[in-house]
Amino acid sequence: MLIDVADVSKRYPQPHLANPPAAVENISFSIAAGEFVCILGPSGCGKSTLLNLIAGFLAPDRGSIQFAGKPVTGPEPQRGVVFQEATLFPWLNIRRNVELGLKAAGTDRERRQKLVDESLALVGLHASRYAYPHQLSGGMKQRVALARVLALKPRLLLMDEPFSALDADTREHLQDQLLKICASRRQTVLFVTHSVEEAAYLADRVITMRPPPTSLYSEIRIHRKQPRRRNAKELTMTILRLRSLLKGLSRC
């Protein structure tokens, strides 16, 4: 397994509370190389906390997280993160924004140029590489953020509701583009979302979460033909199944 999460719990310190409530509790699951896994659940159930623990931005209070057989002790380029906001530097053009992570990793100039060109081509922005963030739409900014992470060739791509602020047409376009990228690179993805439709369309497996004391609610493996189609009967059935699960979650 590429990722192993074992009995993980996390609490955020709060003033005047000796024992604050858990953000996530008793979480255990694994992700195999090449899988696309969605974490689905309502606001406040700990989805983003879980992603930040796997990214290494946070340390668990209890339990362990292993990446490629080694304990996660902090962030690293092999676990690339795409956030809800693109967080681009406005004074740098697209090309230079994408290059930043490679510079920080000490990649030489010739290799940087090659990787930047490859990643911008993957997200369909090579022709716009000299544009600046203020000239881009919201969807284009997210594609730049994705390209910046893809340039590092991470083994695991962590995505925290990256399309939630976009309009429906742009969101669907980026979902399709992401699936094509994942297929071409056999990319492993952990994708956080609160959208049943998004999880059903993107994932090989959906993990549903609820607020503690038992954060992990259920896991559903999705079997359907490739390429994926939005009008497929299997997709409709998966959406109905997930909605039913979330209704049960709200009654727990």
Q: Give helix and strand order, one letter per element, not per position.
A: EEEHEEEHHHEHEHEEH
Instruction: Walk across the major sheet and give the strand order.
Output: 6-7-8-3-9-10
- On the 0 to 100 scale, the average pLDDT is 91
Structural class: alpha/beta
Q: Give the overall shape.
A: globular
Quaternary structure annotation: single chain
Query: What's the total number of strands?
Result: 10
Distance between the termini: 31 Å
Largest sheet: 6 strands, mixed
Percentage of residues in DSSP E strands = 15-25%
Contiguous helical run count: 7
Poorly predicted sequence stretches spanning 5 or more consecutive residues:
none
Helix percent reads 25-40%
**C-alpha Rg (nearest Å):** 18 Å
